[in-house]
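User: Here's a structure from my thesis project, written as structure tokens. My advisor, Dr. K., wants to see whether a designed sequence matches the one we expressed. Can you design one independently, without my sequence as a hint?
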């Protein structure tokens, strides 16, 4: 009523009931309850999504592991080796909770320090 400029005395019963039953605080508590329930639902949805994603990653990891077992070193060039290594590092970082902010220090690039091991590849 106050928001719409209606005088409380015109609706005396409503104003009295609102005061007696503390409608203003009850409405605020209800809004708080709904916000918490919504947050809980969003968290549960995120957890379920994460579980599905992790199950999918597990299946993909097995597939990749089986495929890598069939690779022969003579058929892998340096670009392919680096690509596989970089993708593995990114996936590992993602699964461990690393975010893009941590990668900005090196421009998001994978840094390899054992170059000697790749000579001749």
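Assistant: Designed independently from the structure alone:
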């Amino acid at each position: 009523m106050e928001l719409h400029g209606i005088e409380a005395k015109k609706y005396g019963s409503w104003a009295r009931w609102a005061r007696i039953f503390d409608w203003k605080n009850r409405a605020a508590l209800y809004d708080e309850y709904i916000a918490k329930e919504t947050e809980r639902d969003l968290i549960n949805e995120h957890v379920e999504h994460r579980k599905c994603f992790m199950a999918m990653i597990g299946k993909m990891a097995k597939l990749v592991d089986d495929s890598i077992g069939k690779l022969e070193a003579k058929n892998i060039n340096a670009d392919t080796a680096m690509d596989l290594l970089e993708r593995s590092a990114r996936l590992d970082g993602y699964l461990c909770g690393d975010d893009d902010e941590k990668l900005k220090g090196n421009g998001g690039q994978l840094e390899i320090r054992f170059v000697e091991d790749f000579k001749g590849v």
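When you compare it with your expressed construct, this may help: The chain has a mean pLDDT of 80.
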